[in-house]
């Protein structure tokens, strides 16, 4: 085994290692396709618990609460989100809901 392969072994192990879901992506909206919908990263792996957390603490009465799927441990860590907490994700839109850019807007 060469010196180079010894250095790459831990990296390869980290990439191949399967990790459990650390959280959920939850959307709260008045109706399907609501352009004012809010999305939340929730540091809870259980779907029902994440939905209950957003229903009780963030969503307005009557809003539809929808689980959009799992979120990786790495994303939760990057957001410095402690277990059992959530954070709103600003400006999360479905591709079909994107507004066309006006010709006067400049590229940044």
Key phrases:
alpha+beta, 4 strands, 29% helix, 22% strand, globular, disordered N terminus
Please tell me about this protein's structure.
The chain has helices at 3-16, 47-57, 73-78; strands at 23-29, 38-42, 64-71, 86-89. The chain starts with a helix and ends in a 19-residue tail after the last strand. It is an alpha+beta fold. It has a domain at 20-91. The protein contains three helices and four strands; from the N terminus they run αββαβαβ. It has a four-stranded antiparallel β-sheet.
Briefly, what is this?
By secondary structure, the protein is α+β, with helices and mostly antiparallel strands. 29% of the residues lie in helices and 22% in strands.
Largest sheet, in brief, is: 4 strands, antiparallel
Poorly predicted segments: 1-18
DSSP strand tally: 4
Mean pLDDT figure? 77
| CA gyration radius, whole angstroms | 19 Å
Percent helix, as a range, is 25-40%
The secondary-structure element order is HEEHEHE
Gross geometry:
globular
Strand-pairing-aware structural class: alpha+beta
Q: Approximately what portion of the residues adopt beta-strand conformation?
A: 15-25%
Distance between the termini: 48 Å
Oligomer: single chain
Strand order of the largest sheet: 3-1-2-4
Tally of alpha and pi helices: 3
Give me the secondary-structure topology.
Layout: H1 3-16, E1 23-29, E2 38-42, H2 47-57, E3 64-71, H3 73-78, E4 86-89
Antiparallel strand pairs: 1-2, 1-3, 2-4
């Amino acid at each position: 085994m060469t010196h180079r392969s010894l250095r790459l072994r831990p990296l390869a192990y980290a990439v191949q290692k399967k990790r459990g879901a650390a959280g959920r992506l939850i959307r709260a909206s008045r109706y399907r396709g609501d352009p004012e919908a809010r999305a939340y990263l929730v540091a809870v792996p259980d779907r029902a618990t994440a939905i209950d957390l957003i229903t009780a603490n963030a969503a307005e009465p009557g809003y539809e609460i929808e689980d959009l799927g799992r979120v990786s441990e790495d994303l939760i860590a990057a957001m410095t989100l402690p277990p059992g907490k959530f954070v709103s994700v600003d400006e999360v839109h479905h591709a079909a809901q994107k507004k066309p850019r006006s010709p006067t807007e400049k590229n940044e």
